Amino acid sequence: MFSFRVRVPADIAAAWGRREIIRSLGTRNGGVARLYAARLALSLPKLWKDARRLEETDDAEPLILDWFKDAVASAHYSLRRYPCGEHRSGG
């Protein structure tokens, strides 16, 4: 099973007490895992921005962990919806 591992930015890590996050991507297929990881990585700046807005450290953990859960589910859905690179933007 492949996992996604990311370093938590220093300012968030200092408040939250965790320097990295590791989450299962829910697949044993390396190609699929790379697609999921790329999708997650592209969304990380918004997650960190949202986490920095929180005043209470205790509120950051549910936000971050729920975000990963939702983002992995979204990656699973989008890949099933557009298998084998069939997704085309534009027209």
Notes on the protein architecture:
This protein is mostly helical. The protein has one domain (3-85). The protein is 62% helix and 11% strand. The protein is built from three helices and two strands, in the order E-H-E-H-H. It has helices at residues 10-16, 30-53, 57-81; strands spanning 3-7, 20-24. A two-stranded antiparallel ribbon has the order 1-2. Helix 2 packs antiparallel against helix 3. The N and C termini lie far apart (36 Å).
For this entry, give a set of tags.
two-stranded antiparallel ribbon; mainly alpha
How are the elements arranged and paired?
Blueprint: E1 3-7, H1 10-16, E2 20-24, H2 30-53, H3 57-81
Antiparallel strand pairs: 1-2
Helix pairs in contact: 2-3
Quick structural overview:
The protein is mainly alpha-helical and 91 residues long. The protein is built from three helices and two strands; from the N terminus they run E-H-E-H-H. The chain has helices spanning 10-16, 30-53, 57-81; strands at residues 3-7, 20-24.
Kindly report the spatial arrangement of strands forming the biggest sheet. Answer: 1-2
Distance between the termini: 36 Å
* Form type: elongated
**Average pLDDT over all residues:** 80
Beta-sheet strand percentage? 5-15%
- Give Rg in angstroms: 15 Å
Number of helices: 3
Instruction: Specify the oligomeric state.
Output: single chain
Q: Which sequence of SSEs, written as H and E, runs from N to C? A: EHEHH
Count of separate structural domains: 1
Q: Low-confidence parts lasting 5 or more residues at pLDDT below 50?
A: 85-91
The helical percent reads 55-70%
Structural class of the helix and strand makeup? mainly alpha
Strands, total number: 2
Q: Please summarize the sheet with the most strands.
A: 2 strands, antiparallel
